[in-house]
Amino acid sequence: MINLKGIIKRNLLLKMTSLNAVVIIIRLIISVFVQRLLAVNLGEAGIAKIGQLRNLVQMLTSTASLGIFNGIVKYVSENEQDKKQLSKLFSSAFIFGAVGSIVSAAVLFFNADYISVRLFGTNEFIDLIKCLALLPPIIGLNRILYGLINGLSDYKKHAKIELGAYVLSALLLLIFLYYFSLKGVLFSIVLTPLISFGVIFIIFFDKLKKYIKLKELSTDFSFVKPLLAFTLMSFISSVLLNYIELDVRTTITDRINIEEAGYWTAMNFISKNYMVFSSSIFTLYVIPKFAKINTGNAFKKEVLYIYKTLLPLFGIGMIAVYLLRHVIIDIIYPNFAGLEGLFKWQLLGDFVRLATVVIAYQFLAKKLVWSFVITELISLGLFYGLSKHFVDIYGAEGVVMAHFYRYIIYFVIVVITVWFYFRKQNVSKFKT
């Protein structure tokens, strides 16, 4: 008889996976309940507006810390035992956070009217944008602390923080929905970073005292230059991506209607609920692991190990989601008639995306800035161009088709780029 518990206990990736699976299942149950209430009470138009704000908050998550999250993960994993280096790292990180927070807050506050009209088609939400402008310092600090947690691969505390923050945020959203309808929901999303900060501080306080000692912060900002590379990469992967999603949703609204934009946003919500599982695994396990691998054979072995561990689990899960799509729609998004046709392409795209991103994390782990920037720009350009083309032909379904085709091409490009990287490394060693 297979000792499943023993296998999981001996396998770090499976231990992380199993613990995260518990968190994700709880999140999914809560999310199903919350999304159904939002769909029933706010309809497709409300879901589309929520999607617009979430994209803005995601952009702010990157700009408030100048996108150094993955850099902190990398350098904490490499210098976990070197307190002097960590002191230099966090001294530089707080500089980035201060600059990013001030700039982000100023842009939001002084452009609140324009942003409200651009996102929601009305200046009714100026006060919402100005409220969000007060939060970049908290958002930036959150990202720095999350970077420390992920760099230490402290997956148990990470799971507790994720679950605690999600439950409290969902509760706040439901309360605001009940009393203030759509505007209340949007304000609850804006206030979520405050909840996350409180949960991090409570659960992770002991580790924070150990690794971040304000009195011992260095005046040596030697990590500023290395972290700048991650700023550039984050701008491409987060800020530009969310801007494109905003623009694509606006395009669907303008060329078809806001209901179609709501269908695509709902599909994105479903996708992000299961893909969040992989993103936490990648930052907790893949970046720290790849950062320590220096040969092509070792990299290939690790990638195959990750594939054998994760892809079957995701494959089974995605097949189940597709087969149960009618049930999912009835439970979560009743009366969203146009949602069913989006599942096939979204799930296919997400599976290829998972396989691709595993390899692409080598760019972050080894700080291959231009490899990351060029391949990511190609990927985003493909998605943007194909979406604009297909939306006129297939409606919202055209956008998820673009999502799938984009990742097929991106996978090939990433594999070739990483292969050339290791080939170059081998040539360099041979010459030496």
Task: Write a brief structural summary.
The chain is mainly α and 432 residues long. Helix content is 86%, strand content 0%. The chain has helices at 4-10, 12-63, 69-78, 83-110, 112-120, 126-132, 136-151, 155-203, 205-211, 224-255, 258-291, 296-323, 325-332, 343-365, 369-394, 396-431.
Number of helices: 16
Structural class per helix/strand content?
Answer: mainly alpha
Number of strands: 0
Write down the overall geometry.
Answer: globular
Pattern of helices and strands: HHHHHHHHHHHHHHHH
Task: Please explain how this structure is put together.
- The protein is mostly helical.
- The chain has 16 helices and no strands.
- Helix 3 runs antiparallel to helix 10, helix 10 runs antiparallel to helix 11 and helix 14 packs parallel to helix 16.
- The termini are far apart.
Question: What is this structure's SSE topology?
Answer:
Elements: H1 4-10, H2 12-63, H3 69-78, H4 83-110, H5 112-120, H6 126-132, H7 136-151, H8 155-203, H9 205-211, H10 224-255, H11 258-291, H12 296-323, H13 325-332, H14 343-365, H15 369-394, H16 396-431
Helix pairs in contact: 1-2, 2-7, 2-8, 2-10, 2-11, 3-7, 3-10, 3-11, 4-6, 4-7, 5-6, 7-8, 10-11, 10-15, 11-14, 11-16, 12-14, 14-16, 15-16
Give descriptors for this structure.
mainly alpha; 16 helices; 432 residues
